[in-house]
Design brief:
Elements: E1 9-12, H1 17-28, E2 33-36, H2 41-53, E3 58-61, E4 70-73, H3 86-90
Parallel strand pairs: 1-2, 1-4, 2-3
Helix pairs in contact: 1-2
Length: 91
């Protein structure tokens, strides 16, 4: 039995970069991966294809997806984080 067997992972920002890598690893560990993207639907479909080639299960999501067992925020932030103030971070 795989480490994440029986669980479902929703990985945000999974259409590329770190999010894509996390989605692929999560799927290899046994959890079907919901490949979430705010933009880049084509890249999300490519991630799903890569996961399938790895032997895992995945699907692309651009909308709400129930209550996941695992949530990974792989989405990046724009701008220089080190220049942000506490007020900026709190909104």
């Amino acid at each position: 039995m795989s480490a994440l067997s029986g669980r479902t992972a929703w990985v945000t920002g999974a259409s590329r970069g770190i999010g894509r890598a996390v989605a692929r690893r999560t799927a290899r560990s046994g959890a079907p991966a919901a490949v979430h993207c705010a933009w880049g639907a084509q890249e999300a479909r490519e991630t799903v294809e890569l996961i399938g080639k790895d032997g895992g299960r995945a699907f692309a999501v651009q909308a709400e997806f129930g209550v996941p067992d695992i949530l990974v925020n792989g989405a990046g932030i724009a701008g220089a984080f080190v220049d942000a103030t506490g007020g900026t971070l709190r909104g």
